[in-house]
Structures are given as structure tokens and as C-alpha cells.
Specification:
Distance between the termini: 51 Å
Order of helices and strands: HHHEEEHHH
Structural class: alpha+beta
Strand order of the largest sheet: 1-2-3
Strand content: 15-25%
Number of domains: 2
Number of helices: 6
Largest sheet: 3 strands, antiparallel
């Protein structure tokens, strides 16, 4: 087991994640650099997608997308009338499983969240 850990730490991508990557606060900058590190180490990646659920009354997810030759873009998914349609195509729904309840803020709960 210790040999496996030692071997992983010598991998350039793992080493980068454990050192220089931690210094990057901007998510698009991180995604660009991560893709560069993967490609530099021989991983033929052309697209990377990230998704992060957010506990917020108006925004339910952040997504980063990196594409070869285009760089990184960011999207915030907001709660609203088209929430169900958006979630039906979302990897977040597939990740949490359709059997789990997903909180959808109502107009009254959004209004009360703004008031506080």
C-alpha cells in the first residue's frame, strides 16, 4: 500500500494537484491549467466538465467547461420556472439519483430569503 501512495506522488498530475493547483483560486484558471497538465502528461483530453452543487436559495449549481482550442467557460444554474427541464438533462440529477428529493425554491421562499 505504501508503494502505491509513493508511486502516485511521483505522477506529475498528482504532484501538480497537491502543490501548484492549490494556489489557484479562480475556477476557470484552474480548469485551464488542469487540462494543460493532463495533456502535458500524455492524456489526450479534449473536453472537461465540472459540476458543483451549491447550497443557495437562487443558484443550485456551478459548472465549468473546458474545451480544447476554446478554453474554459463557467455557468451558474439558477432556480426558476424552467428548473425541472434543466435538471432533467443535468449530470447533477444523474449523480444524486432520481429517487432523491431535490429542493426547488418557491417564489415565496425566494422572497423571504431576499428579505433576510
Amino acid at each position: 500500500m505504501l508503494d502505491l501512495i509513493a508511486r502516485d506522488e511521483t505522477d506529475p498530475v498528482i504532484r501538480w494537484l497537491m502543490t501548484d493547483a492549490r494556489k489557484r483560486a479562480d475556477s476557470s484558471e484552474f480548469l485551464d491549467a488542469f487540462a494543460h497538465e493532463l495533456r502535458a502528461s500524455g492524456v489526450d483530453v479534449a473536453r472537461i466538465t465540472t459540476g458543483v452543487p451549491i447550497l443557495h436559495p437562487l443558484i443550485f449549481s456551478f459548472s465549468g467547461l473546458w474545451q480544447l482550442g476554446k478554453g474554459a467557460t463557467e455557468r451558474l444554474y439558477r432556480s426558476g420556472p424552467d428548473f425541472a427541464a434543466t435538471m432533467s438533462n443535468s449530470p447533477i440529477l444523474k449523480g444524486v439519483g432520481a429517487e432523491q428529493e431535490i429542493f426547488v425554491p418557491s417564489a415565496s421562499s425566494v422572497g423571504s430569503a431576499k428579505a433576510h
